[in-house]
Design a protein that fits this description.
221 residues; alpha/beta; eight-stranded mixed β-barrel; two-stranded antiparallel sheet; 8 helices
Amino acid sequence: MLLNVNGVERHGIDVSRWQGRIDWHKLREAGVEFAMIKAGEDTETEVNFYENIKGAKEAGINCGVYWFSNARSYDEAVAEADACLSVVSQYNLEYPVVCDFEYRSIRNNPLENDRKGLTDAIIGFLSTIEKGGYYSMLYTNTDFSDKYLEINRITEKFDIWFAGYSVDKPGMPCGIWQYSESGVLDGLDIDNLNNGTTKVDLDISYKDYPQIMKSLQINGY
């Protein structure tokens, strides 16, 4: 699903269990407007997803989610999407539900040298999310998409969450740009995780996703 409602920039973060305990109210005070929260991987729910989304919503931060995929076939990708839907179906989400398929997903994967097959699997995930009533999106970067995907088949139907650091602008058209992996924000307590750092990924959204979800009456609205 693609809908061009542009002209809005909002600042956000993305988090998983590696950020540990989060003071969401402090993050809201620091200017965080939205959060992309890891909901799960394979068919398992992220250990602190429910805690994170509860805290973000109570602080008035808009939420989207991402699901880390390790699918080795089209059917596995659909099963992951179904698991994702079962986790998020109780929530109103202002931002998309994202398929996150990365380099560690492709290692020793039969789809590694099958550009069409991997693209089919990812489209299977995204289409399943869309059929479930949620706005779907793919997380990727130019290197990965150039090496492994038929990216034009994906971008003609779905938005991109683009990862690119130390650059002036995203390397491809996108709805969200993850522009830093080393942001430092108040509100995170991760002294015992992630090598003791307090860094978090920083994002900019270029579409008015909350308006899109509400106007289309999707994502729980």
